[in-house]
Amino acid sequence: MRKLFNPRNFVLARPKRAITLQSMHDTYNPSSKPLLQIARMTTQSKLVRFYEHPNGGKDFKGRTLSSILQWHDDDLEDSHNYIQTLFPLPEGSPFNSQAPPIDKATFDAFHSRPELRGRLRESFVRILSFYGFELQERDGGLKVSPATNFSTASENWVRPFDHNHLRITRIIRSLRVLGLEREAEAFFVALEQPSLAGKGRISSKSLMFWTRAAKRPLYLAPIDDRDGGEGADFLYEFEKRRQERQDGEDVEAESIHGERKARTSYGVDVDDKESVSKGFKMKATDHGNDQGNKETIGSRKPVSAKRKINEVEALEAKG
């Protein structure tokens, strides 16, 4: 009787040499690194190269950063495959599969290299001009304000819905992820102004996505309807470390506040060391110490109970 085929009993003969990605790659190029490692290096460096060499690094269409920033506004409006490289995201783009996403290596590079963030800022300034805004530095802070071309430029996107609303969501999130959070916040504040957001000029749905991009933890994408989750591991770890630092600063601030409150109870300015010293001397006088005496509170030894009794008995004897 023929036995039925059981796949659990089916065992492939072990080849003389294990077929792995490494061995397959070595067949073609024994001196180079594994294909997977090369693929990772290529993906990790595409965005960095694009921003590192504005006249040399190219996107998938062969365009450099410098050339894109020199485009006319009409070109920025009509082309739909540059924005994904100019303002990349950790999430892949459904509209441009060739655009590289932000990975940990790219994230670390932008956060550790000011020149990369500086060129990203140039991209931001250019796109602000396209939307009719300008970036200003005031009193140590940043502000995005309507520029002289706002009335004309805003005609392209200030409406209940427009494809530029998706771009704006991307821009805010990209700036935050790559280390320009102050710029992202300034842009979001400008978009919240009643002259833009009021009277239905911008849909509530677009405003919701802009708010998510500006306010959510970095590991949560604006399109994600969940309020929890971990998202990309490197972004989750970044937010976790930031929260731990913030918690530590809060504890330190509470400690300083407690010390300030305790010292202020003496009626002196905590930041004025001379006043603090005088304040303690004044309190010492209130407690029966001579103001001219150099002894401070607690420096005198307390009178023992036995000595106190002897002094009382001596006075009674004299009486």
What is the string of SSEs from the N terminus onward? HHHHHHHEEHHHHHHHH
Unreliable residue runs? 1-44, 275-306
Percentage of residues in helical conformation: 40-55%
* Global Rg: 34 Å
Give the rounded overall mean pLDDT.
77
From the structure above, extract its key features.
319 residues, mainly alpha, disordered N terminus, single chain, 15 helices, 2 strands, 2 domains, globular, 4% strand, two-stranded antiparallel ribbon
Descriptive account of the structure:
- This protein is mostly helical.
- The protein is 55% helix and 4% strand.
- Strands 1-2 form a two-stranded antiparallel sheet.
- Mean pLDDT is 77; it is low at 1-44 and 275-306.
What order do the helices and strands come in, and which of them pair?
Elements: H1 21-28, H2 35-52, H3 65-69, H4 73-78, H5 83-86, H6 104-112, H7 114-131, E1 133-138, E2 141-146, H8 150-153, H9 163-177, H10 181-191, H11 194-197, H12 204-215, H13 233-264, H14 273-286, H15 305-318
Antiparallel strand pairs: 1-2
Helix pairs in contact: 2-6, 6-7, 9-10, 9-12
Q: What's a concise summary of this model?
A:
By secondary structure, this protein is mainly alpha-helical.
